């Protein structure tokens, strides 16, 4: 049997109305000073209620908003604002970008020397020269989208547009709690729901066929695909479907667990350079590249008679209620029904996409593509 190693998992609560339990959860854990990192939209609806409940329990709080993908400057600014009165607990309420920012804040607040003369940028993989110590404040993650699975992962993706999109990573950065309340996502626009959902599906599929996969991650990936296969098309038809929201929340959480333990493939290897070049939603990039990539992986697996890979793709198709040949058709139909824009609407040119294809990573991909093949996948979605 292949070696199975599993990273720490967050405590998980998925329940309609779970958000209203958060003040009691914080109070029961004896935290008296909380730093809240949040997105603007969800905070405008839910923030006042949370603050009232925290005050009623004599819990001190500070809050900071994050817009778009977190930059080193955004993280550093929050760290400096909270350094003199450091919270005991960080709570992230928002999408994957908000949770990533909160992870970085939780780490950098207690990383030796950071608040005085260092930036989070110095600790990013492939960018900085320092290795994170793993010190971190406890983090509770409350996702408001179902996509990145950041509530279950050990990395925080930090971006500088025109420069880089890299991770701050350590096993200790995994949140202590993932609280998923479908009510928080009920009003999310269709485009956000679609991009996030396709990100989760991409992560489940890539982890399933990853060279780092094992029996544990395979089982969770299939469970997540079964949930997504029923919930995602239901949300495309009715974004207010709370049952489907909860199921997608479960699928997204599992996508985070499996990516943390099995790794991902070419699509996420492409999302980094593409996301660094333009301010484009990560989930949209994944959704655009997913059908073409899976089509070519299936073709290559059959041509090379990779039986295990073929069987895994068959299982993935079964989980999504299809035959193996229908896997790509389902993904294509979901992308079409999502109405997501192509790369051209974000200003990409064909020449630029060809160049970015050369920067695409293949780590843990079961199939290694040439730059020409990657460029073909990119250009299909121009």
Describe this structure in words.
There is one protein chain. With 382 residues, the chain is α/β, with parallel strands linked by helices. The protein has 2 domains: 11-184, Rossmann fold, CATH 3.40.50.1970; 189-379, Dehydroquinate synthase-like - alpha domain (Dehydroquinate synthase-like, alpha domain, Up-down Bundle). It is built from 15 helices and 8 strands. The strands form 2 sheets. A 6-stranded parallel sheet has the order 1-8-5-4-2-3, sandwiched between helices. A two-stranded antiparallel ribbon has the order 6-7. Helix 10 (266-277) packs antiparallel against helix 11. The longest helix has 23 residues, at 215-237. The mean pLDDT is 93.
Overall geometry = globular
Per CATH, which architecture of the largest domain? Answer: Up-down Bundle
* SSE order, one letter for each helix or strand: EHEHEHEHHEEEEHHHHHHHHHH
Could you say which structural class the secondary elements and strand pairing correspond to?
alpha/beta
What is the CATH superfamily label of the largest domain?
Dehydroquinate synthase-like - alpha domain
Instruction: Please count the beta strands (DSSP E, at least 2 residues each).
Output: 8
* Main sheet makeup: 6 strands, parallel
Could you say what the CATH topology of the largest domain is called?
A: Dehydroquinate synthase-like, alpha domain
- CA(first)-CA(last) distance: 43 Å
Pick out the low-confidence regions.
Answer: none
What's the CATH class label of the largest domain? Mainly Alpha
How many helix segments?
A: 15
């Amino acid at each position: 049997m292949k070696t199975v190693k599993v990273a720490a998992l967050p405590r998980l609560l998925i329940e309609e109305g779970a958000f209203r339990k958060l003040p009691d959860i914080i109070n029961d854990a004896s935290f008296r000073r909380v730093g809240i990192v949040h997105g603007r939209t969800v905070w405008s609806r839910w923030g006042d209620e949370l603050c009232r409940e925290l005050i009623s329990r004599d819990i001190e709080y500070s809050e900071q908003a994050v817009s778009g993908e977190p930059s080193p400057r955004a993280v550093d600014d929050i760290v400096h604002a909270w350094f003199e009165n450091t919270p005991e607990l960080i709570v992230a309420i928002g999408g994957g970008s908000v949770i990533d920012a909160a992870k970085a804040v939780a780490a950098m607040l207690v990383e030796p020397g950071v608040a005085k003369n260092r930036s989070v940028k110095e600790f990013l993989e492939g960018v900085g020269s320092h290795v994170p110590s793993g010190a971190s404040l406890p983090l509770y993650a409350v996702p408001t989208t179902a996509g990145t699975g950041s509530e279950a992962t050990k990395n925080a993706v930090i971006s500088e547009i025109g420069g880089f999109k890299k991770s701050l990573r350590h096993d200790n950065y995994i949140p202590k709690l993932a609280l998923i309340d479908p009510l928080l996502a009920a009003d999310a626009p269709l485009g956000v729901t679609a991009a996030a959902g396709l990100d989760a599906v991409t992560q489940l599929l890539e982890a399933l066929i990853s060279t780092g996969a094992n029996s544990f991650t395979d089982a969770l990936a299939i469970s997540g695909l079964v949930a997504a296969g029923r919930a995602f098309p239901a949300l495309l038809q009715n974004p207010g479907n709370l049952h489907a929201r909860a199921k997608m929340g479960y699928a997204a959480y599992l996508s985070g667990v499996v990516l943390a333990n099995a790794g991902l493939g070419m699509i996420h290897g492409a999302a980094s350079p593409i996301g660094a070049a333009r301010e484009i939603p990560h989930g949209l990039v994944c959704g655009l590249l997913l059908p073409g990539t899976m089509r070519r992986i299936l073709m290559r697996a059959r041509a090379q008679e990779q039986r295990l890979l073929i069987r895994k793709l068959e299982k993935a198709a079964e989980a999504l209620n299809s035959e193996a040949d229908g896997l790509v058709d389902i993904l294509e139909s979901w992308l079409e029904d999502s109405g997501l824009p192509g790369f051209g609407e974000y200003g990409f040119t064909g020449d630029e996409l060809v160049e970015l294809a050369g920067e695409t990573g293949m780590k843990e991909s079961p199939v290694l593509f040439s730059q020409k093949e990657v460029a073909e996948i990119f250009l299909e979605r121009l």
